[in-house]
Amino acid sequence: MRYICFFLMLIFLTSPSFGQKSIPSQKQYVIVKSTFDFLKQVNRYKANSFTKFLFSKAGYEVYLDNEELPEELYYNKCSALHVDVKDKSNLFATRNYIELADCNGKVLFTSKLGASKLKDYERSFRQSIRNAFFTIENLNLIYASFSSQKIENSTTENNTQELKKASKGKAIEIKPLEVLDTITKEKKTSTSYILSAQKSKTGYQLTNSTNELVFEILNTSKKDVYIIKNKNGILSNKGSHWLVEYYEEQLLITRKLQIKF
C-alpha cells in the first residue's frame, strides 16, 4: 500500500497538468541587412554574413534580408530585431558600430565603435565588426525589451487612441552610448588629416605625426597635382585642402588632407 501511495504521488508531481505550467519556446528572430550602405554591394567582403554569424552564435535565429524567410516572419517582419552596421573609418583604421532597430527603422540600441588596423579588407571589417559586437552588453535584455514593446504594440494596433494611452509612461529608455557623442563631435570638427611633406628625388614623402610614411607622391607636369606611388590615384590641391583619390579593389577612396610642405 505504501508503494502504491508513493507511485500515485510521483505521477501527481510529474504530470504536466499539475505544478509549473510549461511555457512554449518563442523564436527570437534577427534580420541583418544584406547590403551595408557604406559598402554598396551585397555581402561585400562577407561583412554581412559575418554579422549574421555573430548573432547566430549568440543564440538567435538570423536571416539576411534577401534570404527566404520562414512564413511567420515573412508576414510579420516586425517580430524581428533589425541589424545594420555603420562605418566611421578613417585613413588609418577601419571603424564600425552596430545599430539595432525595429521594423520601422527606430534605433533601439547603438554599440560602441569597433576598430581594426589590418590592411586586408575582409579581415579588417571582420575584426572591427566583432569588436563592436562585443561592446553590446545584455543583448538578451535588449531583445526582451524589444519583444515586450512589440507585444504591447501588437495588442493595441487596431486602436490608435488606446495605443497612445497605453504607451504613456511605459516607453523603454535606452541610454545613448559614447559612440553617438563621438560621432557628433567628429561632425563638428574638420575631417582633414595633417601630414608633413619631406622632399625626395621624384616628389615628396608624406608622413604622419609619428613620422610613419603614409603616401609617397610623384611630380607631374601640372602644378599642385601629384601621382600617388604604388596606388591608382592622384593628389591635387583644392585651395583650402589637398584631396587624395585612389582605387582599392574597385572602391574609390577619397580623403581630405592638410599638408605641411
Give a written overview of the molecule:
- With 261 residues, this protein is of the alpha+beta class.
- It folds into two domains: 26-188, no CATH class; 193-260, no CATH class.
- Helices cover 30% and strands 30% of the residues.
- It has seven helices and 13 strands.
- Helix 2 (47-57) runs parallel beside helix 4 (121-133).
- The chain is elongated, with a radius of gyration of 27 Å.
- The chain starts with a helix and ends with a strand.
- The model is unreliable at 10-25, 154-160 and 169-192 (pLDDT under 50).
Radius of gyration: 27 Å
Strand order of the largest sheet: 7-8-9-10-11-12-13
- In terms of DSSP E residues, the strand content is 25-35%
Major β-sheet annotation: 7 strands, mixed, barrel
The helix content, as a percent range, equals 25-40%
Defining traits:
single chain; 2 domains; elongated; 7 helices; 261 residues; 7-stranded mixed beta barrel; 13 strands; 6-stranded mixed beta sheet; 30% helix; alpha+beta
Q: What layout of secondary structure does this protein have?
A:
Elements: H1 2-14, E1 29-32, H2 47-57, E2 61-64, H3 71-74, E3 80-87, E4 94-101, E5 107-110, E6 114-116, H4 121-133, H5 139-155, H6 160-167, H7 178-188, E7 193-199, E8 203-207, E9 213-219, E10 225-228, E11 232-237, E12 242-248, E13 251-260
Parallel strand pairs: 1-2, 1-3, 7-13
Antiparallel strand pairs: 3-4, 4-5, 4-6, 7-8, 8-9, 9-10, 10-11, 11-12, 12-13
Helix pairs in contact: 2-4
